[in-house]
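Today's session is about reading a structure prediction critically. Students often jump straight to the picture, but the first step is always the sequence itself: look for stretches that repeat, for charged clusters, for runs of hydrophobic residues. Only then move on to the predicted structure, which in these notes is written as discrete structure tokens rather than atom positions. Here is the chain we will use throughout the hour.
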Amino acid sequence: MTETYPPPYRRTVDDLDPESVTTDTLVAMVRSHRKGEAYPTPEQLLHNLPVVLRALCDHVLTGQATALDVAYRIASVIDALEDHARPPEPARRTH
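Below is the predicted structure for this chain, in token form.
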């Protein structure tokens, strides 16, 4: 009989203390959530930025967005932009 295990717990903004959370904490959380996903190209980022910002603005205007919710979404944009600011990791060679 094969046992199945639930997926590992994935932290959300609800797990954070709003009094002590930092932008770096949120960016790190975004990175952990995106682990294994391909980042958009610089062209895609630039093309999608107005769409992302409009969606964020609409979300804020609903009145249902919390400060942490908005900050997480901004951290997601920061992470995507910073990913292209970092030099690529060198390819690993195995002999």
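Discussion point for the tutorial: The longest helix spans residues 42-61.
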